[in-house]
Amino acid sequence: MIIAKNALPGLLDNLIAEYEVYAPVKEGTYSLFKQIGKGSEAYFGFLNSKIPPKGILFPQSEKLFSYSGAQMEECIDNKKKVVFGLRPCDAQSLLLLDSVFKNDKYEDPYYMNRRANTLLVGMACSEPAPTCFCTSMGGGPFDSKGLDVMLTDTGDEYLVEAVSEKGRELMSKMGLSAAGEGQKAAAAKVRDAAVVVCKVNTDGLKGKLDANFYDTIWESFHEKCLGCGSCTYSCPTCHCFDIVDEAKDCNGCRVRNWDSCMFPLFTLHGSGHNPRTTGKERMRQRVMHKFKYFVDNFNATACVGCGRCIKNCPVNLDIREILADIQGSEARSDK
Amino acid sequence: MQRNPYLPLPMKLVKNFTETEDKLIHTFTFQFMSEEDEKSFPYMPGQFAEICVFGKGEAPFGIASSPTEPGFLKFSVAKVGVVSTALHLMEEGTMVGVRGPLGNYYPVEQMKGKDIVIIGGGFAFTTLRSLVNYMLKPEHRGDYGKITVIYGARNPGLLLYKDERDEWSKRSDIDLICTIDRPADGWTGKVGFIPTVTKEVAPSSNNSVAIICGPPVMIKFTMPELEACGFKPEQVIMSLENRMKCGIGMCGRCNVGNKYVCKDGPVFTRAELNQLPNEY
Questions:
Q1: Domains in chain B: ranges and CATH
Q2: Contact A108 B5 (CB under 8 A)
Q3: Is A330's pLDDT higher than 90?
């Protein structure tokens, strides 16, 4: 199917009548996913949003329940949502978060409920950024996995393709016209032209990490790290959170907030003991979690190659370089 | 869908008991509000729960009571942070929230038919109390062989569960050895650190399981003594502690290697821990 670019705001307005619609919005020099009230607020001239759209399903700060003494009331969000214009890497990240929030024993009702009520309309990447390395992490600029609908920018129009059954249903409400051969060919041309230049060698990486926990290689990666946590806050797969109470006397609410393994307090025991005392242990944890522990547990790396941690790092730490250094090292398993 | 795992069960504090002489550890008894609530909380020795003080927050503690003691839950809590301090000051009759049971438990099924050696130090004895009470229950006692308990603290006033220890010492089907670090007036038990006492007692490793809980330094020096008695890593069971929030394997902070202490533990064999990095 096809939609003219100038018809997109109208289409979004129609969706807004039925759904909470989240789309990229221009904020100064970058863009962010926000709930929009008018189709015209959406801005698609972006490479990728500064912060991933994961917060729509797993908010940076969210109330779990409110209470007055032992009287508790759950805060479950049942609203139907559409995330419009997310990139394939971010869609892939949600598939990874699914395995975190529904594990072998428990299900997180807050995330899972939103997930079930949310449709994902993706925007293929015609111009991958220099920091992108999705093709090394099992994705690609036109990869549609995890999406319901995929859009391809062909210049004046978008080619609209259904990926899932739910996506097909959504498209039937959009009033689109059929795509002609010429339009399909134009989309194919865009796809062929979109090349992710940067490659990260992941062959054998897991094997190295299986053996190098005690390696001296970890002594240096963290040296310039400020421990600011930007990498984890801007990561679409990072899911660590804190739980706190916001209350006065016995009345208040329990809230969860994004947290970061890069902070020293993250693992500090009440006794004062801390299993991850310095930046070395925390950097190792971040790399190990993404490229070893997650692979052990879910058979996938917890990195989709979006490059946000590289772009947002104030001291230019580059995960691609860290991985290359690990690949180039001889793993020593001696303690 | 299952019950919301973040919502605690309302329970009533019926006893706030000062357990140790230094007053820093209290034992709390919480009562289930209905039979239905109690049914929704089926637990085993070694599991833990998040205790929630409304208005302050929640924190994880090992369950000190045993499923063989129906109607209530017991926790022995040191006064350390915001939640534990609020608990210490709490008046009996106050409502709290309890979220759980969480984590795995001591392998009471695999331990059947074996001699059991329990080694505890300081106030890490809480879930061990649960285990001892579970095994001493008449319908379970026959499942296990000889039960030896080695329990130590700095001084007599810091040993938990005095009344129960007195009862256990009178029984012939459990061998309780208590020890303190330095001689004290009126103390008739052993004097010495846990590793030394373990060496003296020299429990047989033949068809045995050792369960050891205590401060890291105690574990570090007791392990060689157990090894000298012939205990293999598969025969040694430990319970880990790490900072936790969710308790259900999602918030990402309590992992040791690829295992979450909250969901995959807290109970691990020494053999399992040998496969993991020493980051705990």
A1: 9-102 (2.40.30.10), 115-239 (3.40.50.80)
A2: yes
A3: no
